[in-house]
Amino acid sequence: MNGQWCTLVRQANTSYDLADPAKVGQIKAPTLIIYGEEDVLRRKNRLHANIAGSTLKMFPNCGMPNYQTPVPFAREVTSFLLD
Length: 83
What we know:
This protein is of the alpha+beta class.
């Protein structure tokens, strides 16, 4: 089972992380990137490293902050949009 899980995660990492670094590097608009620290499907610093001036917010103790911590998530997004 452990080997199957590793394979599943590896495939998911590929399918969920489709952003082309060359294209996201062209983004000039203010950009908020939010991840849960326990999200095992995405490489968390990849977008932030390729979008100049982007803001990265990591939510502790969750994988999907918009689902698991909706109020703090909404507060973070609202604050970013109002700045």
